[in-house]
Amino acid sequence: INILTSLSGSLNAxxxxxYEGSGTPLLTGSYNLQSGDNSVKVYIKPNGxxxxxxxxxxxxxxxxxxxxxxxxxxxxQSTEGESISxxxxxxxxxxxxxxxxxxxxxxxxxxxxxxxxRNWTTTNIFYSGDRTISLVKVSKDGQFIAVVSSQSxxxxxxxxxxxxxxxxxxxxxxxNIADVRFSxxxxxxxxxxxxxxxxxxxxxxxxxGSTSFRSDLHFAEFVPEDNVIVAxxxxxxxxxxxxxxxxxxNIEARSIERQDYSGSLxxxxxxxxxxxxxxxxxxxxxxxxxxxxLNVSF
Length: 298
Fold this sequence. Notes:
By secondary structure, the chain is mostly beta strands. It folds into 3 domains: 1-73, no CATH class; 85-177; 178-298, YVTN repeat-like/Quinoprotein amine dehydrogenase (Methylamine Dehydrogenase, Chain H). It is built from no helices and 27 strands. The chain has strands at residues 8-12, 15-19, 25-29, 41-44, 50-54, 58-62, 68-73, 86-89, 96-105, 108-116, 122-128, 132-138, 144-150, 156-162, 167-173, 179-183, 188-192, 196-201, 207-212, 217-223, 228-237, 240-250, 255-261, 265-266, 274-279, 282-286, 292-295. A hairpin with a 5-residue loop joins β13 and β14.
């Protein structure tokens, strides 16, 4: 599902079927689905174009009429093996990253990531011979990229670049990183594990604030306009959240406000939880089966 236009798509024997947010069929593009290819996946662009991943590491880029624009291989050509390649992009597909989470060479597990340029060439933005990639996030405006990598016996690491591959900073986190989010004009990043969140300045490289939670942490994002971290904790069973609690932490005043949500909430792997600031100290959380409005007064 593309969160910008709510377009969705599916792969079937007829090809790629695209649907409007209401579920109304939009178009069916031709694609020869090969039996036995467990790596096949479709990524939906906001204009009705799409990308199909096939054969472990090949990506077919289609326009909104269902015609192939380009085929790009992300294969490492390693004779020792590699994992299925992945794609990360901002909702508008201004910046598209192809990455190989794990490449085995010389008995070590490494990884790589590259940006797809407008002329269909690629620019390498990350390579490691001994760290695997667990997550790649592109900022909502497509200007910044975060590559999260891990290595047995060491802290998780976040490498930040701009969309042209220029390195902007490297941060470490002593827990398994579940998410990274950019705030403002890219001045801050929020790093989250399942129980802790940290906010860092990309300009200074310093940590602005952090806090830990007793319950499982499902979302956290820094809002620089109000100098607060908005977080959601809950118990989860079969994609249903219960005992939901919303936390707002003012990192300058070192104060916190908590609000309980009495009902249960449904979540989907197809949708990420998103935060919108509607006005000072007022926010809306979307991406769950119900939108949550949060008003804060410290």
